[in-house]
């Protein structure tokens, strides 16, 4: 009886000890924090990592001309960061799917065409980089990666994104740059922690309304797509700081657009916009507004309320007659109105104390407006390719001007004292109707470059110009 009790006791003790040992063994595998991962040693070969497999949390096999991955990697069950980028791997290594402690997986810049459904086994993944491969689809099991924070799939051949991506509520960065996406799934509205979306260079025709649920979004990039309309409630993205929607087919912007008050830069270049919403004046933090290469016929006067605006590009539109106070913005430095059809510019700009550059190239202006010559801070003024007949004396008020460009006009006369602009460095008077010009330009203090080619000068005067106007770069013939 004594022996039976002893045996039972030993069996219970051994069982208990084994269970405890098993627990301890499991406890040795734990997920490192970001801080501890940064302090962990990075191994550069599987062999070296296996020798130190207990401490092998990071393995970097980038740029080693690998075609495949050795199954020896299965000995590294503590592995939490695996870098396989910049190799020649053409098939997703199945062994990776058994490394269930992985937090970061980098397979970028390879030749992988298919991601297996087993990717869902890597439930601890926070970063998945599949950039620059040959992917045409992603499995629905991507939605099982509920801890995922970064998903990079740029430079592939993806046509669609699985709806299940909406299950990845922790996603902060979603990058599908340069693919073939024609639409986005409504499920993307489930990625409520998203801060950056990059869908530049795709074939999107619209954005789902659900994208407006991403109220933490700070950066939205949708350049070079085929989008005609933005969601009516896009104004809900109140934390948006960067919005790039150049080279689309936008016809209009919704009125709610004016609620995007955190925007610092707004690029609307190369769309089909006929006008801008009146609410655009509410974008009080925008410093750069580029609406060039559109079909704008008018500008809302509310733009004057954008008092932090420093650069305004409205070139290559269909503007004709500009009036009012739209440009009367105290901090405005650059105003580009080139390549429009402007005949009149009667805008108040008396508040523009810091204006440095005004560009009217390729318009239909025949008289330089006085309100322009009153802006004494100007450094650059371009009236190339207009219909100017003369240069008014009021131009002498521009005491800080460095470049004056009047090429390809119909100018017949110049102010006699034009040379007195003491800061002037570049003067372009080429291709006008000048027969005689003042010869006192040789007395100009700062003039370095002067172009008078293509004018019908008298031959005797042409000789005088060459002899009397001795500046660094004089172009006559």
Helix content: 10-25%
**Would you tell me the structural class of the helices and strands?**
alpha/beta
User: Number of helical runs?
Assistant: 5
Calculate Rg over CA atoms.
33 Å
Shape: elongated
Ends distance: 124 Å
E-strand count: 22
- Residue fraction in strands: 5-15%
The overall pLDDT average reads 93
What can be said about the biggest beta sheet? 20 strands, parallel
Explained architecture:
This protein is α/β, with parallel strands linked by helices and 477 residues long. Helices cover 11% and strands 14% of the residues. The protein has helices at 2-27, 34-39, 46-51, 370-373, 459-468; strands at residues 42-43, 58-60, 81-83, 104-106, 127-129, 150-152, 173-175, 196-198, 219-221, 242-244, 265-267, 288-290, 311-313, 321-324, 334-336, 344-347, 357-359, 380-382, 403-405, 426-428, 449-451, 473-475. It has a 20-stranded parallel β-sheet. Strands 14-16 form a two-stranded parallel sheet. The protein starts with a helix and ends with a strand. The relative contact order is 0.04. Mean pLDDT is 93; it is low at 4-27.
